[in-house]
Amino acid sequence: MNFHAWTRRQWLAGTGCGFGSLALQGLLQKAVLAAESPLSTRTPHLLPRAKRVIFLFMAGGPSQPDLFDPKPYIASKHGETISPPIDGHEVTVGIDKYLALAPDVPIRPRGQSGMLISDMLPGLAEVCDDICLLKAVHTDNEAHAPAVLQMHTGASIDVRPSLGSWLSYGLGTENENLPSFVTIHPTSDVRTYGAGFLPAAHQGTPVNVPGSPTDSAIKYLLDAECSPEMQRRRLDFVQQLNRQLLDRVESDQQMEGMIDSFELAFRMQSEAPALIDLASEPKSVQDLYGIGENDTDRNGKACLLARRMSEAGVRFVQVTMGGWDHHGNIRAELQKSCKATDMPVAGLIKDLKARGLLDETLVVWSGEFGRTPWSQDLSGTAPIEKHGREHQPESFCTWMAGGGVKAGFTYGETDDFGFRPIAGKVHLHDLHATMLHLLGLDHERLTHRHAGRDFRLTDVYGSVVKEILA
């Protein structure tokens, strides 16, 4: 056991390491926490271009043919049978007829960059010169559950640490009174924000934006029936039992992480309640996010809370916005999804930029995959105006903003069908490697020993997409 571990063990055991003065014990406590806490700030491998990440996850798979990547060939064949470029070995569940499906809403060049963005995203069109659009991202699975898991953890099966947990593990937190990783409106799969085999302190803290004053944004954060002094006594008792168990096993990262998590939860009571109180924001800022409007209120609050969390020092904030799985009636349903998210997302970019935070905050927008350029008719009898689109992991669009990426830049190209990448191909592992790189972390060096081997977010794959770096 090294000196720091021994010192920390003595302090946790309550001995004060032999120092009789309470003042000295207090100083020792502070020094040990700073040196040994799994959330303490760490030096990055590289010169970072960003300090933190806000990941906007569009659950279900946004339709890139309708939003960012129109194809003249598909438009010219609208409603006609086409022969897509598949080799016969690929799974095409749910598709009986390959009917070309053109966008229903115009997709136009925007801003000085000329970036192609649909009329369904007017807010994003206003900030297009601040974003970097990747048009040829691809992943490995076309089913929602494994694709979502791979987007968040790098692996489509197995229990692995999530992206936010890896960042927390590599960099620590900027604020000792807040978690380093927060997930707002998370998916039902806890693995998407879990720490896996990393210390438990690195797992994401779930947050739900309250819909009414009686809702709790962070569960069990406050106990109205118990004073802080009584909470401290209860926590000390539980921690004493934890330390006794830790003394018996001598080394247990999960137990040490749990001890730190309990202490963090206690400290959060001093800062988190004010942080999640959005009423303190000026009305002009709330209006920017669409708060108070029926369609945008929930996502607007989530995006504003993400900005507040990020500004306060949370290293990784993840916001999940569902409703993008459009297998049927995509022309009507996609507009609803865009209306619910466009103003909040654009408001976030504008707000970060106005506060001087965009350059040091990496914003990432993506689904788990995209949608096919041909239509899908679940009923088998619906007119094409009521058709939807199937899942497409072969190519989809992701965009990034701030944090060291080129602004107003489009990277990647797909074939005439909008199906396979033909230039600027970016695998999900490459995306993860690039995100880590922008935070100053070498994805090949950010490893953790587990079950006899070194694991990393990108497994044995991934390359930094240098073409998009500013």
UniProtKB/TrEMBL annotation:
Q: Which Gene3D superfamilies match?
A: Alkaline Phosphatase, subunit A
Coiled-coil ranges per UniProt:
none
InterPro entries noted in UniProt:
Alkaline_phosphatase_core_sf (IPR017850), DUF1501 (IPR010869), TAT_signal (IPR006311)
Q: Classify the source by domain of life.
A: Bacteria
Show the SUPFAM superfamilies listed in the entry: Alkaline phosphatase-like
| Family annotation (PANTHER family) | BLL7424 PROTEIN, DUF1501 DOMAIN-CONTAINING PROTEIN
Name by which UniProt lists this protein: Tat (Twin-arginine translocation) pathway signal sequence
> What is the protein's species of origin?
Planctomicrobium piriforme
The lineage is: Bacteria, Pseudomonadati, Planctomycetota, Planctomycetia, Planctomycetales
